[in-house]
Please model this.
Amino acid sequence: MDVRLPITIAGICFTLLLGGCSQGDEKRTVSLEEKTAKFEQSLDAITDPKLKDAVTELGGSLLLLERAQLKLDSNPAQTEYGEDALGVLKHYPTPQALVDTFIKGLFVLHKDASSDYLTDLQPVFPFNLNIPGGFLFPHGVEWQSVTLSNKRVIAYQPEWSETDPGIQLSPSSSNVTNPDDLTVTYPFIDGLGVDKKTLPQPVSLQGQVEVIAPRRLYSFDLTQKDVGQTRTNDNLSVKLLKLEKNYAEVEFSNNLPLAPEVADAQLNPLIVQARDGTGQYLVRAGSINESPEQVSFYQKQLTHLQQQKTWSEALEKQLSADQLAFEQQHPRRYNKVYFNGPIETLEVSLLDFSSVTVTRKALDLPIRTFSPHTLEKTIQPLDLPIVVYDDLAANWLKGASLTEDQLKAGVRIQQSVEDSSAARIEFSHRRTFNDELLGDDFSPGVSPVTFFTEKRSGKLDEPIELPPEAYQVDPLRATITYDLNLFPDTPAIAVGSMPLFLASVEKKTYDAKSLPKGLEIRNNTLVVDLKLFPADEWRFFVKDDSGKYLKQILSVSHDASAEGPALFGVHYFYGRPTHVETYQRTNLSTVQYGFEVKLEKAQMPDTAP
Model:
């Protein structure tokens, strides 16, 4: 019997727990911590292991849910724009065309590992699988074997074995963010050196891919006037329960049963997006997938479990029956979604899995080697039979015209006072395209800072005279570190100036027939003469005839020698470029950011005898 909250909720909660809560929620936080402590103490009284596991899972999930709700409610009211989560689907005429692009675009990179006894294999997907909306459909890749250069086939095993004396193919332990990465491990013989070039190298990777495309996707556009209304299209319906400044509550349903192929799959058919008054998409801050009725139901189940002495088959059946009865009485699914900014329009999209198309394909993928730097003069082909657009490029390139005021407005100041001997003030801003073109020729100039005490009114008092070793300014890392133990008085305010850096960027646009000397389009590549277009000063983006930016697969620098200059660079794209945009840093200026920071109070050590 599974009495846990849905796993998606737990995952979201864990993500949200990475942040903290605002001061206004301090009492709620304290209350939650007290509740957590009491719950943990109550577990000690449960002696039956199965009952204890059930109470731990359900109670722990409810506490995580409450903590997530607290975090979302305290989310700062700062507008942040993102991309259309459905953009990738909108580039293809049918869901099946997206599926075909996903499969045809898959290839494998050979990557040298840190050890002579390891070779890493990185499957490269045409879409980013690690972000919401990166790839919308249920999918899975099952790796089966690798073929070596000596024709030997090594079967895949789910984990590396310390006792296996042979060559092994297993998941990589070095990259937890890409679960599809693999490692070929060669036998290690203590005291015996190995020349990696003499070992049989992986040449192809075998496996099977499966992708499930839904019958269709349908979107409902909702505003404040739709609150309380149910919108329906054929078998799909959405009800807008509430639309507040930065969050919305919706219920949705599909009155047709799921297709048999996905009846047991964990599906997320709902995609909720929001725009503000500018028409731009807002970044999602998080969501809660349990309605107040569901939470109340789970809390009652938890109370019932806590009243039991032992776990029994009858108890398990009762919990299952109660769960089924609740689901039958509440067939509609609930979602409460928070956004970083004020909502003007809500776009609720539903993937209809009442019928599906399942695509399965056996994979036998050649393993390709593309080093970031190579001494080869010949350009290695990587021309895949697909087109993939870069939906992030247009927004990213707005940073090319970043102004002083915009740069200053984006500065965030954080403090750390846990260590009184190394208290810190950090100045940061969200990375933009402008940062990419800063290069490394910085002239920060003088970065003055003065520490002040304060009057009872909270205003500046006298400056504190300090020895030079009491504080240190690092302008390139935009940090101030100070040792409170060397301060004769407790500082309350820091006043000064921190340098920021701003590139002046010049943009030019060319079509394929009028490229300047040093740029050349060859099939799906852009070849760049790095003597005319040095890599630290130039960036390149390409479009096809649709007017959309093509996604870059990878880039390679062809060098004269290991220590010699770069000769030319090759940028590979999913598609055939017909237009090139160049971005050149023409100047680098220093912008002084004046600040007056109210210092957080540190816990000073007790110096009493």
